[in-house]
Amino acid sequence: MTHELTSAVGLPGPTAAEAPRPASSSIKSSDWWRDAVIYQVYVRSFADSDGDGVGDLRGATRRLPHLAQLGIDAVWLTPFYASPQADGGYDVADYRAVDPLFGDLADADDLVRSAHQLGLKVIVDVVPNHTSDRHPWFSAALADRDGGAARERYHFRPGKGAAGELPPNDWESVFGGPAWTRTPDGAWYLHLFAPEQPDLNWENAEVHEEFDSVLRFWLDLGVDGFRIDVAHGMVKAAGLPDIGHKEQARLIGSQTLPFFDQDGVHEIHRSWRRLLDSYPGERIGVAEAWAPSPDRLALYVRPDELHQAFNFQFLRCPWDPEAMRNVIDESLAATASVGAPTTWVLSNHDVVRHPTRYGGGERGLRRARAAALLMLALPGSTYIYQGEELGLPEVTDLPSEVRQDPAFFRAAGQDGFRDGCRVPIPWSGHKAPFGFGPGSSWLPQPDSWRELSVEAQTGDPCSTLELYRSALTLRRELPGGPMRWLPAPDGVLALSRPGIVCTLNTTASEIELPLPGRPLLSSVPLEPTGDTAPLEPTGDTARIPADSCAWWAI
Q: Are 106 and 59 in contact (CB under 8 A)?
């Protein structure tokens, strides 16, 4: 590997213009997904082309060069399908049409072709657990008061109580309140999310046939795979039994529930794997699956099922070295048992951004930068959420009147909801909308983001953007291979892979270590023993600053 091409905080390195994206011919086509870096584009908040304040496909296409320059392998796009937007597009009314808010099918085709020309794969969302209540199927179901075939595509049930006035069971919506809504004719339908998102009945053959057709539609257009929303949720336990526990959303990811992580979902994913394998170019399936353990999560990525599954245990891990090491070990062991890569992620459009989760302010950003280097040093595939490469924090002071997350309207208070991580990202300029588009932005951006824009950070060797660019350049040059833990003081994680050592100091104090190797990259400037310049140690030791991570050539 060529260390001279890497850039580090405190060391000179190539600018983005000097380190262009490798041509698509240099991207391996075999098993590309095993170590891919995939960038999540939340379409409505990425780039706006027409000035309506909402991001769209044309805007995203125009910004693809930024992603190619960043050094990623693939782009994942959140839903852009026809939708009433009751839940940011995750309530789909037509799976084969682009919502006019985001453009049209020609724009989708242009984005896929443009991405491929830049050497980028394209993954799109598919939402199989539920439709919109405006989907033609659900309209037909509401009209079918005799309980015929139209209602069998969803979960309609009679209520409990003398007059059927109580929900059929005690299931709760992830967004708060009961998971059932009563129709005018007295029946109840299931919605694990918003009432505008009725759950499909995957025991119905028509549902299977429809989604096979939907997947083929987009594969024929040229997409390289699908991120499967609520991949753990399509199958419900027989009889829809009560849970007998309140605050059920808190149980997600900690235990198997009668509506999540049922064994029956795996046959669906096997059938989709067969469909994906019937297309050339290694099209992939990525599970958004909340499972109670790494071993349960690994079931989604067995050789005949999906290719990747998000590692939410890693995302939820606190800033604690023992907890981090345990999650990494358990995750690698579980996926190795089925021959799959581990898929690492720190943020997405549904959780508080990790600089804020790690404490916010300067300390939170230091930890976020360090966590990014740790994640990118691990074997497997990684996901980057848009704006993460800019060090964007969660926006925690959005006025109630601008909030759009349906969960906000079904519970009290501001904290923990999703609008704060979905604020449109800053591209350039000194005032909002910071180059997001020619108009305003659908959620207001903080004035302080002028210092965090792509324009402001480009070329600054100390910026988070240049840290990511340098890390991704170096990651591409490394040979890859297994990792092993190295001895380290309390509060420090040290691991090695072929050609590299990664050291993470999670403590609030500087720690001195035996010199691991030649310094390559650091989340903050390193200050070694003696009078030598940062990141140029000449002795046998190096001082690792608090809340920092460094890579060393070996």
A: no
Place of tokens 């588009």: 437
Q: From the CB of residue 175, how many other CB atoms can be counted at a distance below 10 Å?
A: 22
190 near 180, Cβ under 8 Å? yes
Q: Which CATH number fits domain 136-190: 3.90.400.10, 3.20.20.70, 3.40.50.2000, 3.40.920.10?
A: 3.90.400.10
Question: By CB neighbour count within 10 A (0-12 exposed, 13-18 middle, 19+ buried), where does 159 fall?
Answer: middle
Q: Are strands 121-126 and 74-77 parallel, antiparallel or unpaired?
A: parallel
Report DSSP letters for 66-117, one per residue: HHHHHT-SEEEE---EE---TTTT-S-SEEEEE-TTT--HHHHHHHHHHHHH
Residue 38: HSE in the Cβ half-sphere, 13 Å Cα cutoff: 34
**∠ CA(361), CA(366), CA(367), 5° rounding?**
100
Average pLDDT of each block of 10 consecutive residues along the chain (554 residues)? Answer: 35 35 44 97 98 98 98 98 95 98 98 98 98 98 92 97 97 92 97 96 98 98 98 97 88 85 97 98 96 93 97 94 97 96 96 96 98 98 98 94 79 65 98 97 97 98 97 95 96 98 98 95 72 55 95 97
| Ranges of H-type helices in 238-311 | 265-277, 294-298
Take residue 49 and report the two structure tokens written for it: 């082309």
Of 168, 162, 300, nearest in space to 243 by CA: 168
For the chain, percent of residues with pLDDT exceeding 90:
83
Q: 286, 228 in Cβ contact below 8 A?
A: yes
CA distances from 443 to 192, 248, 416 (A): 26, 30, 17
- Structure token digits, residue 36: 């891919």
Angle at 56 between CA 53 and CA 60, to 5 degrees: 115
Q: What are residue 8's DSSP bridge partners? A: 11
And the tokens for 268?
Answer: 């669906």
Q: Is 333 left (phi over 0), alpha (psi -120 to 50) or beta?
A: alpha
Tokens of 494: 């040290």
Residues 312, 309: Cα–Cα separation, whole Å = 9
CATH 1.10.10.60, applies to 480-553: no
Residues 6+ away with beta carbon under 8 Å from 76? 38, 39, 40, 41, 123, 124, 125, 227, 286, 383
Query: Measured between alpha carbons, how far is residue 253 from residues 191, 306, 313 in Å?
Result: 19, 19, 8
Q: Which of the residues are catalytic?
A: 229, 288
For residue 408, what are its two tokens? 């906000």
Domain with CATH 2.60.40.1180 in the chain: 480-553
Give CATH 3.90.400.10 domain extents, the chain.
136-190
Q: What are phi and psi of 51, to 5 degrees?
A: 85, 10
Could you report the per-residue pLDDT of 371-422, keeping only the tens digit for each?
A: 999 999 999 999 999 999 999 999 999 998 898 887 777 654 445 578 999 9
Residues 541, 515 contacting (CB under 8 angstroms): yes
The CA dihedral of 57, 63, 64, 66, to the nearest 10 degrees, is -160
How far apart CA 18 and CA 1 sit, in angstroms, is: 18
Record the tokens describing residue 158, joined without a space.
Answer: 């009679």
